[in-house]
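Translate sequence into structure tokens.
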Amino acid sequence: MNIKGRIKKDKKTKNLIKRLKPGDIALIAHKDLDEVAALSLVEKKVKCIINTEETISGRYPNQGPSILLDANIPIFETDNKDIFNIVQEGDIIEIVDDKILYKGKEIGNCILLDKNKIEELLSIGYDNIETELERFIENTLEYAKKEKGLVTGKIPIPKTKTKIEGKHVLVVVRGKDYKMDLEAIKSYIDEVKPILIGVDGGGDALLEFGYTPDIVVGDMDSISDECLKKAKEIIVHAYPDGRAPGLKRVEDLGLRATIFPAPGTSEDIAFLLAYANGADLIVAVGTHSNMIDFLEKGRPGMSSTFLVRLKVGSKLVDAKGVNKLYHSSFKLKYVVGIAIAALIPIMMITVRHPLMKELMLLFKIRLRMILGL
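Result follows.
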């Protein structure tokens, strides 16, 4: 195999996505490549991936590599981690068989993860899932003890400037299938006009669909400057001790933000924020809700999600996968039915017209003449 292209590199895939162009070669350091990252790479139409980490470690069956495989995007792994320091972003590199060439020199070896190799590694992941599940449950229970304040009212929840009370709230996370789910509920958004909350990159997801977020919530590590500037209100998720690394970025843009110190994930505090401010209904799109989601997110447990959903469950509707509930299709019988229904009143009006009555009389006389009656 011979592949040549312009290199773009970043050890954080979500940062790299913003700079990728079609045909680029993506150099990443992403252990257990997750679905969301893989879908983003496919969307950018990269030529191939070079990963300095294990794309599938076998710890659990992560589905990112299969998505790239289905999109015919080759995945190469190299154990040469120095490659990040050797190549310069924007330069041309070449992969020839199992060699990586840069400026005419070999800088490392690589292996191609083909279908058989991916299936073999995924099989190991499925075999390990029980062990991983036990560890995950233990971590979840441990974190639940620390994070119980999320539902007991011990954590102060900010009052939003945006009026939420009595309204529907749509919370968008840039998770799996978020685009298809947003498309599926677009008519709901246009008709009901819920308060729009984007969780980090979820704010940009709303912009993609032509909506301006009323509120953006998160640690501000995966949201664009454009979205921060357009959002009507910014709430920075801080550590329980009050440290808020994301606040500096907001202030550097000359913007103001509210700090929300809390354990758990940013999507959890988005639900709490909507609930505590009196939302009538909370609709979630793209959120993380199962063990694989959290393993891919790198979260050791999902206690905060369990706790928060217990608290807001009566008002929460999860739109995850709603796009699969119904697929509209063109059916000729519907068109024929509509056409007939439209023709009936036209025919009734036409028959009752004086001119049509005269034409019918002439037709009747002519028919009698032909028949000799």
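Note: The CA atoms of residues 56 and 367 lie 84 Å apart.
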